Amino acid sequence: MKIPLDIIGDIAILKFPKEYTKKQKINYAKEFLEEHKNIKTILEKTSKIKGRLRIAETKFLAGENKKQTTYVENGCRFKLDVDKTYFSSRLGNHRLEVANEISNKIKKNQNIIVMFAGVAPLPITLAKILKQNNKLDNIKIISEEINKEASKYAIENVKLNKFQDNIQVVQCDAKKLPEKLKKLNLHIAERKADNIKGRLNVKGTLVPLRYDFIFMARPNLKETFLNPAIKISKKSTIIYYHGFGTKEEVIKEVTPFQKKLKIISMKPAGEIGPHRYRWLVKFKVR
Questions:
Q1: What is the tally of helices (H) and strands (E) in the chain?
Q2: Model pTM score
């Protein structure tokens, strides 16, 4: 019987049927390690992804007893802890597709924010594609995430991929994002003032308060988070939004925002259940 699994870096996460005994699980895990030399650790998924932090629990079965790994995708490297952060390797092609599309559309001095960015796979992929297309200069990318552990890894991953001059990680609740950006600018301005007086050595620039491209890698929650996204948008800003369920359900949840947002396109970006999908909805701010 083939067991459902996710592979992230050198860690394989298996989801066993309920009837499997502990001995059967361990034997299967050991056999899997023998057959897949690139895998160092086997974990069992023991809970569903849940909550705003999108965390699932795992249990060690075989190999190296660890939860941290480094995953390579689209030429970028991402360090993460599979128990403390959310990461889906299945969205790699989706991230690359979005990064290429934004790179083709973005103009000089425009800015991008990725909400719910996790350990920063999309911001880093965006920076890489923009650099390859000679468009990264004068572009600011903000990586927002509520999970403190994921934000720490995001900062580390930005440095790991050498984009610390282009990507800024902001750890906050997406509902409070507009206020957080204002407070962050005030804090930077105050520190710069101290630097002028010779009291503090500071590197950093003010973050944009409004964005030309907003990507919402939104969790599957009731809250749409479109209100804070609209507050940090401009007229003609493009918003990429993750909705979940049937097409009709997603359209219904975004209908209250139709005066502010015009739907440009809508397409599936991964199946989450029978006849239920993650939808990528593209809006233009009116």
A1: 7, 13
A2: 0.91
